[in-house]
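Journal club prep — side note

Before the paper discussion, L.F. wants everyone to see what a predicted structure for a comparable chain looks like in token form. Sequence:
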Amino acid sequence: MANQFFVAPSPHVHSAESTTKIMRDVVIALLPALVVSALLFGWSVLGVTALSVVCCVVFEYLIQRFMLRGAPTVGNLSAVVTGVLLAFNLPASIPWWIVVIGAFVAIAIGKMTFGGLGKNPFNPALVGRVFLLIAYPAQMTSFPQPAGAVADAFSGATPLAAVKFGAVSTSAIDYQDMLFGSIPGSLGEVAALALLAGFVYLLWRRVITWHVPVTILATMALFAFFVALGRGWTGSLLYEFPAFHVLAGGAILGAVFMATDYSTSPMTVRGGVIYAVGIGVITMCIRLWGAYPEGMSFAILVMNATVPLINRSVKPKRFGAKK
């Protein structure tokens, strides 16, 4: 398994018990960020998350039971993970009925249409998130201020949106706020340190390796550095711009918890690096020159579509084969 991107094998050959353990570890890794979000935005965070999880589980059970007519698969906790990740991509103030629609799209279209876990080519939570962003842009981009926030200049906008549309400059950003979560944003993009704690836990549990998350964030940082250099920036601004893009928005959430989904990412380390570089570049192109301030969700879905081609082009060496 040394040449595999994920320590865990594909769900096609992995036991149901092992898959459940992996999904449970992912849920545990997300808990620190959930706690921080609840402290910042209040009980609505737990309500949005619980509703998303329950809807994802119920929709998967109903589709599996009455449409696919197979044994229910909700026991492997993959629907729970999808529900939590979908909630992490939503504002705390999102109307409940939009959460229900997002959960249905994520499970029914993003996952079960293709046959369930291990057969879906796209990350289900991101399918739901992108659908909601296109269908309900106003509700998806209206963010409450966190408790005790001092970043009044954002006026409810995320730091990414505020910088992109000229409300503030990167030099006015308090990076301590971004690390600890005192900024407006979706549930899973407001506490960088909590997400990084989850990353460390997943590495310790050998659920993922470091290659894809680190490559994505390093690609984004280098891209931002050379853009800043091209703009003639010097001094601290030259280094603040890359740090800002790594910490802002859904960069860490996407790199650690969604780009590493073993159903939708390449099988080899080399393939994972190619995949990760593509995500980083596309994310930065959208952030800097696209219509949306955030690009991580779109970038991951685009690169999900290239995974079969990457797997075909970058194959692991067969055991005993000559170089």
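L.F.'s comment for the group: Residues 1-13 have pLDDT under 50 and may be disordered. Keep this in mind when we get to the figures.
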